[in-house]
Amino acid sequence: MVTVRSDEERVLSIINFFKDYKFYILSVILLVAISVGGYFFSESVKSNKIQAAKVLYEDWQVTSAQEGREQLFQNLTENYSDTGYSHLALLKKGSDLAKENKLQESLNLFYQLKDNSDGFFGNALMNGIARTNIARISISLGNFEDALAVLEKYSNDEDAYTHELKGDALSGVGKDDLALQQYQSAFEKYSDNGLRNLVELKINNLNTNE
User: Which residue of 18, 85, 148, 185 has the fewest C-beta atoms within 10 A of its own C-beta?
Assistant: First the structure.
């Protein structure tokens, strides 16, 4: 036998449901409201922070006084360290110092860039550039273990230049067999004949030393 419920009974059942579970319903509504509000607040703060970093970066670019430039740089890289403008400033200054052969100062900035751009919410592109430059400078300074450590996270799927850097570092610590494998991977992945010839010379030098 089918029980037919009147409209009034249906309304009463809905009212009773809300009475019985009103605490849970209100809690869910409040939680959603807080989450949405928190998201928009966070996005607003992030947007304001990026805009402030942009202003600092542009001021740093055009300021000619050394003391003023340094203050702007410190403010940007310390107080806005997670922004792209801070990363760009570290990359630019680190590269400029390397060109001036101030390798240790350059290395320090690239380590700072690596740390600031690392992690799940970091900037993978900037982190990769930082690691590559750290490895390159470390090899120039003879710090081969440091170069290997910073490149350790990369698998065999990396680009040709990373393979070449690994080969240089491994050769520097006397692991010629492993260095040869990296050079061969670099040779296979390079499309530029000049770069392939350079790696081929390194391979031949290792084979000569055996």
Answer: 18
